[in-house]
């Protein structure tokens, strides 16, 4: 087990009081596994990633739960220890590659600096490895690209460089938060292939955060569906997408225009994601759920196994396994 | 169906000092009345520029655009057919709604282009409340500010603002790209219903092929400023002809099984292609010598056309 999170609760304190952004979120990633986290905006995907990285802002408190990374309890580590873990043991890739790169520093130097720091090499050795690293993310003519500034490169190239940076230590876990959302579909495909390739070749585990079920289906081994700060379903990607257990997953799949008949209206999910400030009692999805029962409005269902490889948090699925 | 809009070899160049960039090159496109025409392509391919020329925001450098038989641009001036006849909805409702205006003011603002009598008529209280209800909002929302709404609701406000003048044509530039899947479906449904109820014509710009397939009757695929293929939506999806369209379709990270073999870009060409070459030469997996001279856009059938030497 590379990463294990148990019953994590995260609260944010704002002007209007406390908001619970994560509610009892548990997840685990095995070595070499790609876990996808999907959900709509505000569902808690990014907060999950940030809490693993220890990058939650000062207005956030972790009020419950634990995160263990290779047996080490991350929540007990001090800021300095977290700093040495980030980038070295846990790589990060975010959505916007332009903001993740230093704008006035040549790409090669940025990479060399990271390599120098993590591996304690000389400048010359580091530079050589930097060019190697560029080659590994399939950049044509790495020598030339190493001498360029980020603004001279396309979005896809930049994201490749961010991935090269994240993988340079090399880490055991790569956290990628919407790594392809800012890119064109054709480039998105290339970047996803690259992440999958590095995962296969090096056995790096990946936590991939996305709002796109298509992305999940093309790279993830397992998927976790989040809604309003909770995990509502978790299981093998193929199984979850082919036969969803939670009504929310099902509704989300049906709302996609991918296979819809243009003559028929799309099966939209009525209403909107609840305001976390005024979270309804009971299941957070109940007000939009076509299968809601009396109990759903009163009591929150726990995430429990519904079949061999699958868990769901839904009253309908209780006692079926 | 009669022709509403006709692009005839439209070019658009942007200048910066002595340098120039051609954003749109020789675009020919016909939009029939009552249809939805989709524009797809990667960022920078010229989709939005094409749309902007229809609402008077960008002037074409060459060529002509006809709207209902009359030219839209004459002597570098935008000739508005009728105030409020053409409207637009943009991607980001956060930045396209004035944060200091109340919803009511936002929706009524386009009416200032109209005469006093018409303005009063179209901006009546009953009309406003029924329009709000129609787009899925409530009458009490009229006195609120944009920040009090979610992304989906803001896009509904933008749609209401576009509809207040009773337009016949709307440019929709990535109208659902900033929305979540569940909300996107609601907005797409609303746009489709409104189109049928009011006999509207849309130019629908999007980079999302699934959305385009669902919404559009006709699709035009753009690459580096050129329309490389256009045709009926179903035809284009079933039998794409241009290599770029094929790659675009095979790149879709669909949750469902894909048809046809996977196809990707070729590594950059070794030879310098020069100015004459096909715009896709650099990355085309099927490039050949003939492609050093750009292919003309030719019809395969009456509605389906492609610019590729392979289809000669």
UniProtKB/TrEMBL annotation, chain A:
Pfam families tied to this protein: ABC_tran, oligo_HPY
Q: Where does the record say this protein resides?
A: Cell membrane
The protein's matches in Gene3D superfamilies, at most eight in alphabetical order, are given as: P-loop containing nucleotide triphosphate hydrolases (3.40.50.300)
Q: What molecular functions are annotated in GO for this chain?
A: ATP binding
Principal location:
membrane
Keywords per UniProt: ATP-binding, Cell inner membrane, Cell membrane, Membrane, Nucleotide-binding, Translocase, Transport
Has the keyword Cell inner membrane been applied to this entry?
Answer: yes
The annotated topology with respect to the bilayer is: Peripheral membrane protein
**SMART domains per the record?**
AAA (SM00382)
Presence of keyword Cell cycle: no
Q: Which residues form the ABC transporter domain?
A: 3-253
Please report which protein family the annotation says this sequence is part of. Belongs to the ABC transporter superfamily.
Name recorded for this polypeptide: ABC transporter ATP-binding protein
Species source reads Fictibacillus fluitans
Taxonomy of the source species: Bacteria, Bacillati, Bacillota, Bacilli, Bacillales
TrEMBL record, chain B:
The record's annotation in Gene3D superfamilies points to: P-loop containing nucleotide triphosphate hydrolases
Pfam families named among the record's database cross-references: ABC_tran, oligo_HPY
Q: Name one GO molecular function term.
A: ATP binding
* Domain ABC transporter, residue spans: 5-249
Q: Which InterPro entries match?
A: AAA+_ATPase, ABC_transp_ATP-bind, ABC_transporter-like_ATP-bd, ABC_transporter-like_CS, Oligopep_ABC_C, P-loop_NTPase
Q: Does the keyword Transport apply?
A: yes
Which keywords does this chain's UniProt record carry?
ATP-binding, Nucleotide-binding, Transport
CDD domains registered for this protein in UniProt: ABC_NikE_OppD_transporters (cd03257)
Q: Which family does it belong to?
A: Belongs to the ABC transporter superfamily.
* Classification via PANTHER family: TRANSPORT ATP-BINDING PROTEIN
What's the protein here called? ATP-binding cassette domain-containing protein
Q: Which organism is it from?
A: Fictibacillus fluitans
